[in-house]
Amino acid sequence: MKYLENLMIYFGNLSAFYIFSVATSIAVVLLTIYLGIVTRLTNGSPEQADRKSFHKSQSQSSTGGDGSDDSDSENENLRIESLRQLKSAKLKSIERRLTDEQRQAEKEMEKAQLSAIFELLKQQSEKFDLCADLNEDDLKEQLTLYR
């Protein structure tokens, strides 16, 4: 009985800031655990990760080097490639949902934006060190490289 009274006195003397800080800390820990689990699931099962690390360690020991530069750059390329694939898939799904009128309006807007960009480039050609023979077809060709 005395223990319960002491506990109630203790909880009664806690400040709101302390309670908020403890609750925030618990929430951050739980969020970190959740994100770790989600990341592990999206990157593959733990068995696959173990197999990958096992094969990587075997290839490193067989080559005699650590190979960390190659694996880091390879992982970075995979991340970039998957991000590109994700963006292009989203863009394609959005394009499929457009009606013919919306597609035509998009093309007209794109032409208007390209012509406005081209005009700005022509006006400020010395600022951007552009050649005098820049034309709108070159700009369109450059745009296709980024799609």
Automatic annotation (TrEMBL):
UniProt name for this protein: Matrix-remodeling-associated protein 7 helical domain-containing protein
Record InterPro entries: Mxra7, MXRA7_helical
Region entry Disordered, spans: 45-78
Transmembrane segments: 16-37
Ranges for domain Matrix-remodeling-associated protein 7 helical: 85-146
Keyword Transmembrane: yes
Pfam families: MXRA7_helical
Record's keyword terms, sorted: Coiled coil, Membrane, Transmembrane, Transmembrane helix
Coiled-coil boundaries: 84-115
